[in-house]
Design goal:
BirA Bifunctional Protein, domain 2; Threonyl-tRNA Synthetase, Chain A, domain 2; 4-stranded antiparallel beta sheet; 39% helix; globular
Length: 628
């Protein structure tokens, strides 16, 4: 079964269950300083899981492309990827465990055709410290589901993953109880780390069994679902948000309980073809086949290199097709890193010529089904990636020349760790390439070259940390008070620009942190000092007036044509949009399409001060401002 078939079957299945299929969010989220990329299916829906009503109702489904760079060093094994697609369905206070568990089992066995004997599941064992009981309800539902499929599923209490490594599983066991490290969901991780006020709860993970021969007992211990071994692979997780953490640290049951399900498209597809190697599915194998052709080498003998290239170029294409360009800052640097790692691995395979033009069309074809609303730059993506590859290959050639110069200038012909750092930092010549090239050319490396390199790198990071202190502070709590105030102030700033400078000014981008706001807007000239002062004074006047800030959900056409709401991406919005109005409803000070968050009245913002007005790009100006 192809991945595109699995995706469509899932969405059709959820439609039949009464879910509204919503469009996926971009990999780079607007106005979110807490993360570089969309890293999970639930991330764009977090406000609604926290209680905000969704315009499309309380039963939702989608397939969300995601990117997690924290997994980048693990890519090369059979199942880790930086980019993946998460199939998701949500109940926002509608159905719960007894509906969700059988539905997912039926999807896997009836729609995808998985053998129910190969399905294993986990549940939460409970926590005495906080008085949260064992999730017997979920286990009993699972037991009945297996029974209906003709399987007498036995239940085992494992506790910790370490216990599982020692115990393993016994014949007939399909349902396993684990502790909060494995089967509790909160934004903070384990149960002790659950943030105050957050919804949270037990989860039930689903695994596919690829056979006992895949388990490396000597390395990982006995096989069980939560083992690090290759026998079991998680293919889905059902989070049952039924608790909230109170101010005193204890937990209370929620009146309105949510279901948050996420299943990896790549992993479910791998299970459908009974392959523990996700790189053999339709989204990745054609890339591997092309790499074998270009290199003249086999996948079986070069799995690490080919897996890394296939994964990284897939992520690079999705990011570039969404309009991101390689750069040395933030998301652009992450994109550049993916491309460069792929090129280096191609060199390891002996592919000396530009190869991206051969690979990217294969990836683009694999993602023809993704909507244009997120892949807005499909036509220019290949050219942008080709350009980056050519530039990096030139960098590599220059780095080799500089390396040879350093060796010639050293009396003993030795290359030090400080030299290796300079090659990377100044010339973009990666450390691992320098070391490999030194061995190839019989260049002597200093005895402590790795420690010397790490020291130089640490010193540079410390300088960077000091320089960027306060630029972005992670954690979802940054959607709190100050970010909320700055978000609202951004709306007022745009409204003042439209009123006082040019009515045809529109937002071209924004960035909000707890320390400041940044607004990009179209204008082909500098603001005069008088205009800047007038904008600042106008915003402060609106703050002084303590205007109300209200929102409601409307049909997109009504919001655009009747309400005349300001919006950046009309073609990307869903059919229903959230509109924030500041001031009088019939004669608003500001009215914009926006997801929030905002204050309830402007009087709480404080004093608005423009710190800088500058060029952002051709025809685009940028204002940076603070609230005092």
């Amino acid at each position: 079964m192809k991945a595109s078939e699995v995706r469509q079957k899932f969405l059709d299945f959820q439609k039949k269950r009464g879910h509204k299929v919503i469009a996926p969010a971009p990999l780079v989220l607007e106005n979110d300083p807490t993360t570089l990329f969309t890293g999970s299916g639930m991330q764009p829906l977090l406000p609604y899981l926290l209680g905000q009503p969704h315009p499309d109702g309380d039963k939702l489904a989608d397939s969300q492309p995601s990117l997690r760079l924290q997994d980048i060093e693990d890519v090369g094994d059979p199942r880790h990827t930086t980019v993946f697609e998460m199939l998701g369905n949500w109940s926002l206070g509608d159905y719960f465990k007894k509906e969700q568990i059988p539905a997912f089992f039926n999807f896997l066995t009836q729609e995808i055709g998985l053998n129910p004997e190969k399905i294993y599941v986990t549940c939460f064992i409970g926590n005495e410290k906080y008085g949260i009981p064992k999730d017997v309800e979920a286990a009993e539902i699972w037991q009945q589901v297996f029974k209906d499929a003709g399987i007498d599923a036995k239940i085992a209490e494992i506790g910790s993953a370490e216990n599982g490594d020692k115990r393993g599983i016994k014949p007939g066991e399909h349902i396993f109880f684990y502790d909060d490290k494995e089967n509790w969901w909160s934004r903070g991780g384990g149960i002790d780390s659950t943030p105050i006020g957050d919804p949270c709860g037990p989860d039930s993970e689903v695994f596919y069994d690829f056979g006992e021969d895949k388990q490396d007992v000597e390395k990982y211990g006995q096989s069980h679902p939560a083992s690090d071994g290759a026998r079991f692979m998680e293919i889905g997780n059902q989070v049952f948000m039924q608790y909230r953490r109170k101010e005193d640290g204890t937990f209370e049951e929620l009146e309105k309980k949510n279901v948050d399900f996420g299943g990896g498209l790549e992993r479910i597809t791998a299970a459908s073809i009974d392959s523990f190697d996700v790189f053999k599915i339709s989204l990745l194998k054609p890339i591997i086949d092309k790499l074998e052709e270009l290199s003249g080498k086999s996948y079986d003998n070069n799995t690490d290199e080919m897996r890394i290239i296939a994964d990284h170029l897939r992520g690079a294409y999705l990011l570039t097709a969404q309009g991101l360009a390689p750069s040395n800052k933030q998301q652009g640097y992450a994109l550049r890193r993916l491309i460069r790692r792929a090129v280096l691995k191609a060199l390891d395979l002996g592919i000396a010529q530009d190869f991206i033009p051969e690979i990217i069309p294969i990836i683009a074809k694999n993602y023809e089904d993704l909507p244009d609303s997120i892949l807005t730059n499909r036509d220019t993506a290949i050219a942008a990636l080709e350009k980056e590859e050519r530039a990096f290959r030139q960098t590599l050639n220059k780095g080799l020349k500089e390396m040879n110069k350093m060796v010639e200038q050293d009396a003993d012909g030795i290359l030090t760790g400080a030299d290796l750092f300079k090659l990377q930092d100044t010339y973009g010549f990666p450390f691992e390439v320098s070391v490999e090239e030194a061995y190839r050319q019989n260049i002597t490396l200093s005895k402590d070259y790795k420690e010397e390199f790490d020291k130089a790198l640490a010193e540079q990071r410390e300088r960077s940390k000091t320089a960027s202190k306060g630029m972005f502070k992670g954690g979802l709590e940054d959607h709190g008070e100050m970010s909320t105030k700055y978000h609202t102030a951004t709306h007022l700033t745009l409204a003042a620009l439209k009123k006082l400078v040019d009515k045809d000014i529109h937002q071209q981008g924004s960035n909000i942190t707890p320390e400041r706001m940044r607004l990009d807007f179209n204008l082909d000239r500098k603001l005069t000092p008088e205009e800047k002062q007038a904008v600042e004074d106008q915003v402060n006047e609106w703050i002084k007036q303590d205007l109300p800030v209200v929102f409601d959900t409307y049909d997109k056409a009504y919001a655009r044509d009747t309400l005349k709401a300001e919006g950046m991406f009309w073609d990307k919005y869903d059919d229903k949009v959230k509109v924030y109005t500041i001031g009088d409803f019939d004669a608003p000070t500001s009215r914009e399409i926006c997801g929030g968050p905002h204050v309830e009245h402007t009087g709480v913002l404080g004093h608005f001060k423009i710190k800088k007005e500058e060029s952002s790009s051709a025809g685009v100006r940028r204002i940076k401002a603070i609230l005092e």
